[in-house]
């Protein structure tokens, strides 16, 4: 049978990674990131959080101005529970959808 767009797709076949190799690679990346964090060699951290129905890119000591009512005074520390992403100069951790 001649190859046509009806007998085979016009795009190249995608080869999925080996799950065992992918797990090893994942463990190595996590080990390196944890090493940077425990050694304090990460520079300035940032996070993307979901808060007050919006996504915010924040760093330590940022002030967020919003229209919603929140039981906190200006300068109070609040707990951000929906963290979507955390990063620094050398790494980025992305949640699926949230980081644990």
Automatic annotation (TrEMBL):
A GO MF term: structural constituent of ribosome
What's the domain of life for this entry? Eukaryota
Q: Which Pfam families does the protein's record reference? A: Ribosomal_L21p
Q: Which GO terms describe its cellular component?
A: mitochondrial large ribosomal subunit
Q: Which family does it belong to?
A: Belongs to the bacterial ribosomal protein bL21 family.
Q: What is this protein called?
A: Large ribosomal subunit protein bL21m
Write down the species: Ptilorrhoa leucosticta
Name of the encoding gene: Mrpl21
């Amino acid at each position: 049978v001649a190859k046509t767009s009806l007998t085979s797709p016009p795009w190249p076949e995608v080869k999925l990674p080996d799950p065992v190799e992918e797990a090893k690679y994942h463990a190595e990346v996590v080990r390196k990131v944890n090493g940077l964090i425990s050694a304090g060699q990460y520079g300035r951290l940032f996070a993307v959080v979901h808060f007050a129905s919006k996504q915010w890119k924040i760093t330590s000591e940022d002030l967020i101005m919003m229209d919603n009512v929140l039981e906190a005074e200006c300068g109070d520390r609040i707990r951000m529970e929906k963290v979507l992403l955390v990063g620094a100069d050398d790494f980025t951790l992305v949640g699926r959808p949230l980081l644990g």
